[in-house]
Amino acid sequence: MKKILILLLLPLSLLAQNKTIVTDIFTVTYSEDLQQPLEVKYTIQCPLGDAKREGISWRKDPSIKTSDNDDYTKNVWDRGHLAPAAAFSCDRETIAKTFTYLNCALQHEGLNRGPWKELERFERNLAKFFEVIVIVKVDFDEQPLRVLGGAAIPRGFYKTIFIKDNTWKFYFPNTDVAGEDWANFKIVD
C-alpha cells in the first residue's frame, strides 16, 4: 500500500516544480526539473519596432531554478528565444524583457538561426495587418539528455500561430535544419 501511495504522489511532486509566470509580454509555464520552459504564449506587440538588442544581458529569475549561461557554453545549443526579441522591439526596455532564461530553450543553432528565425520574421510581417498570437510548446523525451550544466535538451518545438479565424501549426525537431524552409515544418491536419 505504501508503494502505491508513493507512486501516486510522485507525479504530483513533479507538477509542483512547474510554475506559470505571467509577464506583461508573455506567459510561460516553466519546469524547474528540466530547467526549461514547457510553454510560452505571446502576442506580437511591435512588428515594426527597431530597438537594438546589442549589449542586453540574459538574466535569471532568482525565485525559479532555470538554466543559465553555463548550459549554453561550448556546444551547439543557442539560447533560443521562444517569445522573440524582435517581436517586442518597441523600445529597449521592452526588448530587454525577452532576455530572461524563463523565455529561452536549448535550441540547436541550425534551427534557431535558420527556419525558426525565418518563421518569426513571417509572424512579424503578419502582425503588421492582424493580431498574431503564438503558443510554443517545448517537446521533451521521457528521459531527456542534459547538458553539463544540468538543463534538459528539448526533442523539438510545437508552434501554433493564431490569426483571425486561421490556425497554423508547426513542429520543428531540435536538430540542424539550417537551409530548410520553415513551411516544410507545417503540420497538415
Question: What can you tell me about this protein's structure?
Answer:
- With 189 residues, this protein is of the alpha+beta class.
- It has one domain (18-185): 3-Layer(aba) Sandwich (Extracellular Endonuclease, Chain A).
- Helices cover 20% and strands 28% of the residues.
- The protein has helices spanning 2-16, 92-96, 109-112, 115-127; strands at 18-22, 26-31, 36-43, 77-81, 104-108, 132-139, 156-163, 166-173.
- The strands form two sheets. A six-stranded antiparallel β-sheet has the order 1-2-3-6-7-8. Strands 4-5 form a two-stranded antiparallel sheet.
- Strand 1 (18-22) and strand 2 form a beta hairpin.
- The longest helix is centred in the first third of the chain and has 15 residues, at 2-16.
- The N and C termini lie far apart (45 Å).
- The relative contact order is 0.17.
- The model is unreliable at 1-10 (pLDDT under 50).
The proportion of residues in beta strands is 25-35%
**Amount of helix:** 10-25%
Widest sheet: strand ordering: 1-2-3-6-7-8
Radius of gyration: 17 Å
Total domain units: 1
Overall shape: globular
- Helix-strand topology string: HEEEEHEHHEEE
CATH class: Alpha Beta
Number of strands: 8
Oligomer: single chain
CATH topology: Extracellular Endonuclease, Chain A
CATH architecture annotation: 3-Layer(aba) Sandwich
Instruction: Give me the number of helical elements.
Output: 4
Q: pLDDT below 50 for ≥5 consecutive residues: which ranges?
A: 1-10
What can be said about the biggest beta sheet? 6 strands, antiparallel
What is the arithmetic mean of pLDDT?
Answer: 92
The helix-and-strand class reads alpha+beta
Spatial gap, N to C terminus:
45 Å
CATH superfamily: Extracellular Endonuclease, subunit A
